[in-house]
Amino acid sequence: MNIQKIFENNKQWVSERLKADTKFFENLSKGQHPDFLYIGCSDSRVTVEDMMGMQPGEVFVHRNIANVVSNYDLNTLSVINYAVEHLKVKHIIVCGHYGCGGVKAAMDTTDLGILNPHLRNIKDVYRLHKEELNSIQDDDKKYKRLVELNVQEQCLNVLEKSFVQKAYRAGSLEVHGWVFDIKSGHLVDLQIDIDDATQGLTDIYTIN
């Protein structure tokens, strides 16, 4: 696509917004008050607001390769902190997707240079669930299951954070694990029982 076409598309988008609501951008410029923090993959096929049916200003978004929440990534940690302590979001969503190239790469032994440290987070997920994953003979099913388990573990990584724990215990915050099925377009709620999932974390990670 020609870059100039993007600016033409933008003008058309602005025009359509103003036709529906003449004060749309005026109201949008006053600030943001989203209820949702979405942590997802950078994959170009996953369009956050579109698939959620949301409008600008309704979702605070952070994306990286394979929706990883690493304790060493200050960018991700800053986003979560800002969303919880300043925006006061009510929901944190970790959303992976089937067909994730980052998860696929983590299953391989190829040296990917600067990507290696990031993908190691997903390899750690494989290590934690090696017995279950190695019992799956079908490679595609194993791949999909690792996508799901990666979402589950990243939800736990979110819940390890002290400021998240405080909001969660106060009942003002919920954490959800989803997967986007690119082939169908549907969102899949993994129905992660957060209370059950965090039982093993209580003694180690809880901060009063």
Total individual domains: 2
Helicity level, as a percent range?
A: 40-55%
Rg value: 19 Å
Mean pLDDT rating: 93
Low-confidence spans: none
The CA-CA distance between the termini, in Å, is 53 Å
The description of the largest β-sheet is: 5 strands, mixed
Q: Which percent range describes the beta-strand content? A: 5-15%
Got a strand count?
5
The assigned CATH architecture of the largest domain is 3-Layer(aba) Sandwich
User: SSE order in H/E notation?
Assistant: HHEHEHEHHHHHEEHH
Q: Give, in spatial order, the strands making up the sheet with the most strands.
A: 2-1-3-4-5
CATH superfamily placement of the largest domain? Carbonic anhydrase
Query: What's the helix count?
Result: 11
Instruction: Determine and state the CATH class of the largest domain.
Output: Alpha Beta
Characterize the overall form.
globular
- Helix/strand/pairing category: alpha/beta
CATH topology of the largest domain: Beta-carbonic Anhydrase, Chain A
Write out key terms for the chains shown:
208 residues; alpha/beta; Beta-carbonic Anhydrase, Chain A; five-stranded mixed beta sheet; 11 helices
